[in-house]
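Example 4.3 (complexes with small molecules)
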Amino acid sequence: MPSSDDDAPAWHQLAEHFAAGARLFDLRAAFRSDAGRFDHFSQAAPHVFADLSKNLLDRTAEELLLRLAEQRGVTRRRDAMFAGESINATEGRAVMHWLLREPAGDTGRLDAQRREVHATLERMLAYAEEVRADEGITDVVNIGIGGSDLGPQMAALALAEHAAPGRRLHFVSNVDGHELAAVLRQVQPRTTLFLIASKTFTTLETMTNAHTARDWFLAQGGQDVARHFAALTTNVEAAAAFGISTTFGFWDWVGGRYSLWSAIGLPVAIAIGADGFRQLLAGAHAMDRHFCEAPPESNLPLRLGLLDVWYRNFHGFTSRSVAPYHSGLRRLPAYLQQLEMESNGKRVDLAGRPLSRGTSPVVWGEPGTNGQHAYFQMLHQGTDVVPLEFIAVRDAAHSLPLHQPRLLANALAQAQALMLGKKDAGGHKDFPGNRPSTFLVLERLGPAELGALIALYEHRVFVSGAVWGINSFDQWGVELGKVLAKDIESRLASGDATGLDASTAGLLQRLRGPALS
Ligand code: F6P
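Answer. The structure with 6-O-phosphono-beta-D-fructofuranose bound is encoded below.
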C-alpha cells in the first residue's frame, strides 16, 4: 500500500515548479530583480527576528509550500496537539509540553492538568530558591541523559550570565565512568546536591551513574541522602524505591526531548532563579501563541518547517548546519540534534507504511566563529550544498569593546560570502556562491529570548514532521541497541560468543582479551 505522503496535489505542483526552473534559482539574480525580497522573506516573531531571504526559495515555491501544509493538515494537527488529543499514537499519548509554559488560571480546557502543572512548578521553584539560598550547597550535579541532560545543560550554559555566582553546576550523562569520576574528584558529599533526572527512571546510563553517585556519597561519609539527592521523573515510585524522598514529577505527555520546561528544568531554575525560569517559560509561551495565531504567510515555525521540506524533498539536501554566534549557545547544536533527528528520523508514516520521501536532515554545527576555521571551507567550496543557519545575538553581556562588532561582522560576512561567492579564473580560488542561509537575530540572550528560540525550533520540527505524516513524538529506533547491549554485557563477562556474527564475536574477544599490542 502506498504511504499517505503522496496524496497532496501540491507535492506535484512543487515538483513541476522545481523542474521548470526553481532548481536553478540564483540568489544574486533574485535580489537584483526583486527590491522587496528582504522585506518579503524576513519577519519578526516573539523575541526572534528571522531573515529567510538568502534561501533558494521564490514566492511561487513559498505559496505552493503553504498550500502543501494546508493539504497535509498541518494546522489541524497543530490544533489537535494544542487540544490535548493523543497525537502520539504509537505510544497512545497526548503531546502537551506547551501546557508547561501556559500561564496559571482556568481557561475551561485541560484545567485539571494545568493546576497540577502549576502546583509542581511552584514547588520546584520554591525548592530552587531554597537551594540558591543554601550556602552549604556549593555544587549541583545533574545526572541524566538525552532530553534529561541536553536541554538543561544547553540552557544553563546559554544563561550562565544570568546565573547567581558561587555555585557550580555539573552535568553527567555518559555511562562512561570517566565523566562521573571527573566530577566526583571535584566535589564533597557534604556540599553537593545530586539531581537524578530521568523521565522513566530506568535509563541504563542514568541509573548506573545514580547508583555510583549514591555509593560514593555513602562511602565518603555522606549522611543525609534525602537532603543531597532529588529526583526529577514521571516514575515517582521508582525514585522512592531508590531512596529519594524529594521528587518533582511530570507527566507522560511530556516527551523527553521536550521536557526542559518541566521538573527537568530544575538545574536551570537553580542557576537563574524562579523569576528567570518564569521568563524562560513566558518566552516559549509567546512563541506558542505566535505558532497558533499568526497567519500562515508570517508564521515563522511554519515557514521554517516548510523550508526544511523544500530543501530535503526537492533540492535533495540531506543536512543542515547551525552556527550560533554566541559561545553560550555552544550546546545548542547537540540539543537540536536530539530535537530534530529523534523526532523526525522516521521512515514510516503514522499508519506504519514506508515513506516515499526523505525525512529528517542531519543537523550539526559549532559556534561561530570557531566553525569558520574548521568546516566552513566545505560549506563555501565543497561539492555538497548545506543550508546554514546563523543565530546572532545583538547585545553582548560583556563590555569588552573589541569583540561584539567583530563577532557580528563575521556572521554577516559569512552569510554574504556564501551567497555572493567570488569568480576567479583558476579553480582553487573560485567561490561558486548561491549557497543558502537563514539568519536569526535575538536582541540579547536572556531567558525569554532563549525560551522563544527553543519553542520556535520545537514547532518547526513539528511542521516538517506533520507534512511528512510521521509521528515526531516516539523514538522506537533507540530500543534495539539497548536490548542488544544487555546481551553483549553478559557475553563480555562470560566470553560466550555463540551465535554472534563474526565481526561482533571478533571484537568481543579483542575487548576481553589481553591489552591490544
Ligand atoms: O534513548 C532515548 C531516550 O528515551 C530519549 O528520548 C530520552 O530523552 C532519553 O532516552 C532519556 O530518557 P529518560 O529521561 O527516561 O532517562
